[in-house]
Amino acid sequence: MRFVFCGGLDCPDWVLAEIITLSKLSSVRIKLLCVQVINEILSGSISYEKVYKLTSGGNFESGDIKASVAALYFIIRNSAKFDVDPIILSKELQQLGLPKEHCDSLIRPYKSQKEKLRNKLSEESLRINRIEKVDWRVDLTISTHEMKQVLEPSVQLKIKTNEETISFGVNKKKLKILLNDLLQAKNIMEMK
C-alpha cells in the first residue's frame, strides 16, 4: 500500500515495526515525544534525558527507544516534506496500526508546527549560490586549417556569486556539447 507521508511509496518495514512499539506508549507520551522530535528537526537538539523519562516504565530497551524516536522523526519530517494534510496523516497512521488516540496526539504538534517545519526543510534543501553578475564576451580567432582561414568563436564567461567568482572559456565544440548536455538535463527534469 502506498502512503502520502512516504512520498507515494510503501511504508518502510522498520517504521511498521516501530508502530507496535509506539502503540505501547500512552497518547500523552507520544505527544511529548513528538514535541521533542519537532524540536530536533527545527533546532537540531533533542533532550534524550526527557525522551528516556517519557519512555521509562514501559520495559523498553535503549534500542527500542532510539528506533521509536527515529520512526517519529521519519513520519514527521516526511509529512512536512511532502506537505501532508494532518487528517490524511492521521488516517494513514491508523491504517498502519497506530491507535486513533495516538494519531491525534501526533497530529496536534505536527499541525501547529507544520509551517515552521516546511520552512526549515526548505532552508536545508539543495541550493546554488545566488548569481550577482554575469559577464561574457565572444572572441574570434583565426585558425588556419588545411590551407583555409576560419574564424573560430570562443566564449569567455565570468559568473560572480555572493561567495566567489567563477570564470571559464569554451570553444565552439565544447559549447555545443554543453548546450546538448543542458538540453538533456532539461528534458529529464521535465519528465519527472
TrEMBL record:
Domain of life: Eukaryota
Pfam families in the cross-refs: COMM_domain, COMM_HN
InterPro entries, sorted: COMM (IPR017920), COMMD4/6/7/8 (IPR047155)
All copies of domain COMM, residue ranges: 130-192
Protein name as it appears in the record: Comm domain-containing protein
Organism ancestry: Eukaryota, Metamonada, Anaeramoebidae, Anaeramoeba
